[in-house]
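Observation: inputs received (chain + copper (II) ion).
Thought: call the complex predictor directly.
Action: predict_structure
Action Input:
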Amino acid sequence: MNRRTAVQLLSSGSSVVAMGGLPSLLSSCGHEAFGPAPTAVPLIESPFERPLPVLPVHAGGPIQLVAQASSLDIRKGASSTSMSYGGSIYGPTIVVRRGEGVDAQLTNQIGADTNIHWHGLLVPAEMDGHPMHVAGSGASLRYTYALNQRACHAWYHSHVHGETGRQISMGLAGNVVVRDAEEDALRLPSGNDEFVLVLQDKRLDVSGHQRYAPSMMEVMNGYMGEVVTVNGIAGPIVTTSQGRKRLRIVNASTARVYNLGTSDGRPLTCIGTDQGLLAMAEDVQSILLAPGERVDVLLDLRNAVGGEQIYLETRTFDGVTTQGKHAARILRFDVTTNKGDMSDLPTSLALLPTLDPNTATRTRTFDISNTHGGGHGGHGGHEGGHTINGIVYAMTRSDVQAAVGGIEIWEFDNTAGAEIHPMHVHGATMRVLSRTGGRGILTAPERGIKDTVLCMPGERVRAFVSFGPYAGMFLLHCHLVEHSDDGMMLNLELR
Ligand code: C2O
Ligand code: CU
Ligand code: CU
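Observation:
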């Protein structure tokens, strides 16, 4: 039985039938590589026993990024092989001011092709980490570019076609923090009160070694681990003063969506998203964060008392059958008796360009439902693979041509789909205009400037896309990385 038949059978029931509800049907397809039944991978909470690792910071000047094998105690006392840029955990956080630039030399010591994409930064096409630009084993690549964009939390990661999922999940990822005067003026929590947090789920074997080996079913549902790590480890603790904390969170998981909230129900104040500050802060009880997305939140511990323990947790959520069924606490804050940043947040945060859809020169629709054929081409050698508009990625084919500096409306149509697709564009930024079907609403972070937008099953998301200043070959893809590795990616040619 191929995927199409499975989808037809599944959707012939009442409304959208849970994939997980018919394991026997799917496992009887006779394809041994289908692996375990497609139920949501549970979350296993880890004991909170170790301080949160602080990723090294690099501010100013050239930086060497040596992609290498390393080892990391993801679970306490159990060392696992991993990969990193120059250390044991991920790469350094590159801090840069608007108007300055980045000069990074990647040296490849992983024994396979690798490269770096600067997710969220507007850089020239040759610097963007397009999969046609890779460093072979032992080789180097230099990335130099100036940055002229607003303050934001971007990140960098490998983008080798077919291997991106493995390399990111092994640790080839890092953060970029862009600062500017508009943000400085807000006097947001800084220094020890500002945290860069990389969320990534890991599948660990009995001895604590991480594994990345998606089955065909996991290429469809996404490869998920039971253990959620923050900055590389399970069960981290932050010991911190009473006061405001700024949490800058990136979801570096290949497939898992988090629904972030606090263990005592105190709201998170959402102040920023992928491309920087929102116009106004918004208190929320929980925030969905899909792979590739970033969120900037304030955690208000001004009224916490010494000795109190407050957790950041991920909660259950609806909208897709293959995840969101489990909750877990992922990071603990141990509050001391010291007083930290007790100041208030200004009500308005930033000026965002006004949205005038009439300035868009055209509208394009991208069918991301993936209801026809394939679903596992890149891995199983079947026909197909994950598609956008029915097309599987080809490295050098120009798929979408658009104007440098232009504006279009893009519609991501997952109306008939059963999988989640966080859609991401390189060389451009997005403003989400509407979501119909599924959740039917925009979330707080979606009122800011985005580069990645989550499309749940049944949803149609319209976004205003502003192309950046550089010509050349960029990408449009799903950031559920098993999907993009399987072909759910198009070349976006700006000219
Ligand atoms: Cu973070 Cu092309 O991706
Ligand atoms: Cu990107
Ligand atoms: Cu996808």
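Thought: report the result.
Final Answer: The chain has a mean pLDDT of 91. The chain has four domains: 3-34, 55-183, 191-339, 357-494.
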